[in-house]
Specification:
Shape: globular
Distance between the termini: 11 Å
Structural class: alpha/beta
Helix content: 25-40%
Mean pLDDT: 96
Largest sheet: 7 strands, mixed
Length: about 350
């Protein structure tokens, strides 16, 4: 089968090969035919080494498709079921799961060190234990979540990561209050989803911050009340909040410099929500006096900050009701052979989400 493979960390282009085989099928596993997958910035971070990932590997974790086969012991799925990929499934039995924090379960991460594919030259891993830039993938049954028939594959794929992450940051983690002021720094697919989440919560002012003009324009279509370049943020803070700072600021870039800017843009007693996935050697610093005196809440948000199955259901319900726009997030569509075009579209900021149709 065909799959897009990265051979060494740091390579900027993927090689689409036709000699890749999905492996590991057996009890408790399912074989999934990928129909659509989104390109998430985390895929780029794994490619360039910001996020740790064994090589060679197949990127992609934001996917949807249909079940081709189920292994022994799998009773919740059957051949032909339409599913989305959950790259961080809950085991249901670890301390995090028992506390109700299923999004912090580490069971899914354990899959990242086991090859999902093989080629004549040896083993190939799947990013985050998945690898959706492939025609087929074998995953644990709890990674495949059934979707209703009215949800297109490309919409389901986005719900599998970016939409759930952004919406959940606003709704679950920050718990944005109606009438509040919000700033979102970084307006790709996840940032736009955070904007939509803040709007759904009833925020009065939502300021989108991004260096790319087309993304700023898009943010206004998705609910931002104003969109500014990063060098205009200080002025927006002064104008909109009388210099006090925003009630909620979302950092959706994953860099300490923008996290520091977000902290300084948050009012005293306000909330900084860190959504971007950054590097292990990039350190965010605050001094002990400001930490104590300003009483700003610093809340990281992983995969939407709550039970992802419930978050999937909520995203579908909001989409059906017309409260959020998911079709509009897909600005480009390419076949698997065009995967490197999709990478360029994300790097230069022209795409919110590129759908790879497989």
């Amino acid at each position: 089968m065909r799959a897009a493979v990265q051979h060494e960390t740091g390579q900027e282009k993927l090689e689409v090969l036709d000699d890749v085989e999905a492996v590991g099928f057996g009890p408790g596993k399912v074989r999934m035919r990928v129909r659509a997958t989104g390109l998430c910035h985390s895929d780029l971070s794994a490619m360039n080494g910001v996020l740790p990932q064994p090589v060679p590997f197949v990127p992609g974790h934001e996917g949807a498709g249909e079940i081709l086969d189920v292994g022994d012991g799998v009773t919740s799925l059957r051949q032909g079921d339409r599913v989305l990929m959950c790259w961080l499934p809950a085991c249901g039995d670890c301390p995090s799961c028992r506390r109700g924090q299923t999004h912090l379960c580490l069971a899914g991460f354990m899959n990242a060190g086991t090859p999902n594919f093989k080629r004549p030259g040896g083993d190939v891993f799947g990013f985050a234990g998945t690898g959706t830039f492939a025609e087929e993938v074998v995953v644990a049954a709890n990674c495949a979540v059934p979707i209703p028939d009215d949800v297109p594959y490309e919409i389901a794929a986005l719900i599998g990561c970016g939409v759930t992450t952004g919406l959940g940051a606003a709704i679950n983690t920050a718990e944005v209050e109606a009438g509040s002021s919000v700033a979102v720094i970084g307006c790709g697919g996840v940032g736009i989803s955070a904007i939509q989440g803040a709007r759904a919560c009833g925020a009065a002012q939502i300021i989108a911050v991004d260096p790319v003009a087309t993304r700023r324009e898009a943010a206004l279509r998705f609910g931002a009340t104003e969109a500014v370049a990063p060098d205009q943020l200080a002025d927006a803070k002064a104008r909109i909040t009388s210099g006090e700072g925003f009630d909620y600021v979302f950092e959706v870039v994953g860099r300490s410099a923008t996290a520091r800017t977000a902290y300084e843009t948050t009012r005293r007693g306000g909330t900084l929500c860190v959504v971007g996935a950054g590097a292990m050697d990039d350190h965010f610093q605050v001094n002990m006096f400001e930490l104590f005196f300003d009483e700003k809440r610093i809340l990281p948000s992983l995969y939407g900050g709550a039970d992802v199955l419930r978050s999937y259901e909520r995203a579908i319900a909001l989409w059906r009701a017309g409260r959020i726009d998911l079709e509009g997030l897909i600005t480009h569509r390419v076949p698997l052979d065009g995967i490197n075009d999709a990478l360029d579209q994300m790097r230069n900021g022209t795409a919110l989400r590129t759908c790879i149709e497989i």
